[in-house]
Amino acid sequence: KDCTSLKNMIGIEKVEYIGEGSFNNCTSLTTLNLSNCYEIGEDAFNNCISVESLTLSTSLTTLGSFAFANCTSLKEVVIPNGVEGIDVASSFVGCTGLENFEIHNLDYDSFDGIVYSKDLSELVLFPAGKLLDTYKVLEQTIRIGDYAFAMTMLNGDLSLPQNLTRIGDSAFMS
Q1: 3-state SS string over 53-114?
Q2: Which of 71, 103, 128, 135 is the most buried (most CB within 10 A)?
Q3: What does the alpha-carbon distance between residue 59 and residue 82 come to, in Å, rounded to a whole number?
């Protein structure tokens, strides 16, 4: 925690578990190869503002809340097929450079880098760095999830579906 000069970790690709807050505020880290890690704790890499590259394991089973929050240099996240039971929105809140998020599993699907629940009833995550003038939420959507549009760069109109019934906590937090 708070190792602000740590730039690279050789051998981290062999680590299976990373605990809560382990690398919080390690602001010089640039690359994370977590290809063998099955559990990443809460706030594990929160505020690692220089992380540009992230590789996650196909064996990932736990991704704690705010695990990669405020990783402002991260541009793309790809969650490997088979990874289940993770909280996508809170894990990546505040990633203002994030332009694309790819996930296809039993819980979520992404379309053009925007994450929805599998049944499309909830918009889960609109990447904060995705630059669009307008966006139309899918008609099947009835909920906007917690943190879904937090810190986004949407610069214009957001069209909501007629059947929308719920807007989650901090959904449009700036």
Answers
A1: EEEECCCCCEECCCCCCCCCCCCEEECCCCCCCCCHHHHCCCCCCCCEEECECCCEEEECCE
A2: 71
A3: 8
Q: Which long-range contacts (CB under 8 A, 24 or more apart) does 135-144 make?
A: 135/159, 137/161, 137/164, 138/111, 139/163, 141/116, 142/166, 143/167, 143/168, 144/168, 144/171
Angle at 64 between CA 148 and CA 90, to 5 degrees: 10
The answer to whether 147 and 172 have CB atoms below 8 angstroms apart is no
**54-to-44, 74, 119, 125 alpha-carbon distances in Å:** 13, 8, 27, 18
Residue-wise pLDDT for 10-67, tens only, equals 899 999 999 999 999 999 999 999 999 999 999 999 999 999 999 999 889 889 999 9
Structure tokens at 68: 């990669």
pTM, to two decimals: 0.89
**Cα–Cα distance between 53 and 71 in angstroms, integer?**
10
Q: Record the tokens describing residue 65, joined without a space.
A: 């809340």
